[in-house]
Amino acid sequence: MPAEWEPHEATWLGWPHNASDWPGKLEAVRWAFAEMVRKLAEGERVRILVNAPAHEHRARRLLSRAGADLSRVDFFQIPTDRSWLRDSGPLFVTRRRPAPEVAVARFAFNAWARYPDWKRDRQAPVRIARRLRCRVFPVTHRGRAVVLEGGSFDVNGAGAALTTEECLLDADVQTRNPGFSRETYERILNESLGVDTLVWLRNGIAGDDTHGHVDDVCRFVNPTTVVLCREPDGGDVNHRVLAENRERLERATLGNGEHIEVVPLPMPAPLSCHGQRLPASYANFYIGNAAVLVPTFNDPNDRIALGILSEVFRGRPVVGIHAVDLLWGLGTLHCLTQQQPALPAAKTQGRRTAC
Predict the structure, then answer these.
(1) 341: Cβ–Cβ under 8 A, 6 or more apart, which residues?
(2) What confidence tens digit (pLDDT) does each residue in 49-92 have?
């Protein structure tokens, strides 16, 4: 699986339609979504799933008003339960030999072992692959479909990945694959995504209803460097969690024995809704071809986080997207997006060998 910063053919999104994810905020969320599309379309195609022709009509009208380049936007009538394509969408993998190809590693999806409505989401990767004429490789273990969400791990494109024990190994809360061990996951990710080094952090941040997704905590920004959220307030529930994750990273090595460089990323002040802590994090950024989109929260640390990410992504502009309304759905930019990598560089002699 290529790193997110490698060239994309497209970014996939699902048009927001589930009002229960954003009570009272759906229209505001759609405007934030439109701003994402506007920025992403400057550097790649944007492919949007819609549940019905009426959704597409409304989406086109709003995107046009927001100034998005609709000539670079494709709509696919593929129904979904929710819009969180990082977790329910296709995970694309590539190869260069014997012929360049992009395919889909198909994991199962069960709505984070938390919600009852997931059947349409589970079918979306296969329907997308069919439309793109991509091959699909179902991921199984001992005859059982493996459940895995894209937000539960982060790859560097060179054989390493990050994940958390809280998400993949907790046997009591939101268990995706009962009985799976650390070694089982390492073998599965090696065989399906080409991961030969899996770095295990401990826990995710407070308020995350996925129970520990790593994309709110720590992200690769190049093959040997990560940004890791840091909470200096010793009274905040995230302080100890993030400090322990830093200790683990300081001991971790990549497959070649090289240590990982850790760049600290601040946390915004705590945000809550009706007394519930929300998983606000600058680590939930998305790396597009033309820009890095970063969630912002009307917080003094917005400026600091954008500055740090501008330093580590010097080749692309870093753009803040107001994400407080998105956060009511317990996720932001990375959770909504899924990258489709460009065809691996190689001579194809005119043959069509990929999506």
Answers:
(1) 2, 6, 7, 8, 9, 92, 94, 102
(2) 999 999 999 999 999 999 999 999 999 999 999 999 999 999 99
Whether this model's pTM surpasses 0.85: yes
Among residues 106, 206, 122, the alpha carbon closest in space to that of 166 is found at 206
Peptide bond between residue 98 and the one before it cis (omega within 30 degrees of 0)? yes
Domain ranges of the chain: 8-341
Catalytic residue among 134, 229, 335, 355: 335
Q: Is 99 helix (H, G, I), strand (E, B) or coil?
A: coil
Q: How far apart are CA 248 and CA 275, in angstroms?
A: 31
pLDDT in tens, 114-150: 999 999 999 999 999 999 999 999 999 999 999 999 9
Query: Apex CA 167: angle with CA 164 and CA 168, to 5°?
Result: 85
What is the CATH T-level fold of the domain 8-341, as seen in this structure? L-arginine/glycine Amidinotransferase; Chain A (3.75.10)
Q: Determine whether 218 is an active site residue.
A: no
- Give the Cβ contact number of residue 232 at 10 Å: 11
Contact yes or no for 55/15 (Cβ under 8 A): yes
